[in-house]
Amino acid sequence: MDAKRIYLDHAATTPAHPDVVKAMQPYFSDIYGNPSSIHSFGQEAKAALESAREKVVVLINARPDEIVFTSGGTESDNFALTGIVYANEKKGDHIITSKIEHHAVTECADFLAKRGFNVTYLPVDKYGMVDPMDVKKAITDKTVLVSIMHANNEIGTIEPLADIIKIVKEKGVFFHTDAVQTFGHLPIDVNKIKADLLSLSGHKFYGPKGVGALYIRKGTRIVPFLRGGAQESNRRASTENVPGIVGMGAACMIAQAEMATAALRETALRDKLIRGIMEKIPEVTLNGHPTARLPNNVNIAIKYVEGESILLNLDMMGIAASSGSACTSGSLDPSHVLLAIGVPHALAHGSLRMTLGRQTTVSDIDRTIEVLPPIVEKLRAMSPLKKGGK
Amino acid sequence: MAGPYSEKVMDHFMHPRNVGELPDANGIGQVGNPVCGDIMKMYIKVKDNIITDVKFQTFGCGAAIATSSMATELIKGKTLEEALKLTNKAVAEALDGLPKVKMHCSVLAEEAVQAAIDDYLKKTTGKGLPGFKPHEEPLEEHEH
Ligand code: FES
């Protein structure tokens, strides 16, 4: 086996940047005060917290008092959905979202649906795009919230947010977006697109795990997610995760400086990988949009083979990827995203996601293009779906 | 790698025994896993009530491939009666166990063996395996 392992699963998580780790270090045992304390220990921590907040807002053109730190993307999504609908119960009981949202949104919407709210799950086209006209048609005078992700974590498709939000805001409805895959990777301006709420997560852009944030436009009424303290302007009780928040702030600084060049570089690698696979392996298709796509996302459907067996084989060769297959996750249904874009069951099982990152090199891509075809060939040879095994 | 599978599972997965088609098979069974949609096809050659050769093809996860491979080893050279006694648990045990969420995959192996024997009996005696009811194949059409 090759000594160097190749990590192509950056959509799952990214390594914390060394500067992030360095920035966090003092906040474990040197500057350990509780930001709510009035003494100097607390105030030092408080200053660090506020400085991190200012770094987060730069990336989305928000104001510091519009950021609530959370434990990550899942909490931010849950907070946005439940917080808005419960704060607006008198106004209405209808939520609109899409069929390809992260489970942090869909399962939260399911939960609310069981409690009497009405939820519309909008379909998407074969590329995974939500049609802004569908949003328009779905909005009623009872609609309180529309939640559509910025870009999909599995297939990488970037949604036409500006167009969707324009419609939503004309109707005076709140708009939330799960930007976990795009924050720190693509430019976002909440004032330009006019989002009211936006979820982000530290570990998806080289920050630490266990920390994220929810942007909440000033003036938006929201029910707190955690109760029991005045932290985060009474919107999220619990002593703040100071080291994590400081680390995420540092990651924002790095993202700000490197985002543009990283996106260009990763897009080139992405397209090289897609092209290489398409050329070398027959009967594969690209899942997701060819161009309106995350710079680092490759997701391909490989006929006649099942995802987990590809992943295990790749892992034996030192390449880490992920799949749309149920068999890997412990849940048995194939990805709801792939099914929503119309990928047949068997093909959804044979889907492979490779997500690149800052450390991915051209030779990593070359190696992947070299290693994958024989694996597919070997698995196809034993597949009963492939006639003649060729 | 210390993945979810035992060394034995990984060995059978990476180097499956008896893979492929068997041109002179006189019993062929195909079963689909209703839980996950995976598919297993088993070919047997029976002579004088003994399974003299066996091959398989599987579209499925690591556990599905490893259990098919193990099942072929366990029934090769056995009488039909012996082969019919093969349970999914026995296959899993022979592989030093499977993760809990993967036990359903081993059911596929047990049923593929039964389906192949059922097919053989139908062809030779006109009557299939008494009481054999394989799971339906998944509803979705697989494009070929
Ligand atoms: S046989 Fe489908 S998950 Fe194992």
SSE succession of chain B: HEEEHHHH
- Counting structural domains of chain B, the number is 1
The helix content of chain A, as a percent range, equals: 40-55%
Query: How many helical stretches of chain B?
Result: 5
Largest sheet of chain A: 7 strands, mixed
Query: From the helix content, strand content and strand pairing of chain B, which structural class follows?
Result: alpha+beta
Strands of chain A, count: 13
Radius of gyration of chain B (Å): 14 Å
Shape call of chain A? globular
Q: How do the SSEs of chain A run, as a string of H and E?
A: EHHHEHEHEHEHEHEEHHEEHEEHHHEH
CA distance, first residue to last residue of chain A: 27 Å
Q: Biggest interface in this structure?
A: A-B, 29 and 36 residues
Counting copies of identical and different chains, the oligomeric state is: heterodimer
At the fold tier of CATH, the topology name of chain B is Sufe protein. Chain: A
Low-confidence residue ranges of chain B: 137-144
Shape of chain B: globular
* Residue fraction in strands of chain A: 5-15%
CATH topology of the largest domain in chain A: the name is Aspartate Aminotransferase, domain 2
Major sheet attributes of chain B = 3 strands, antiparallel
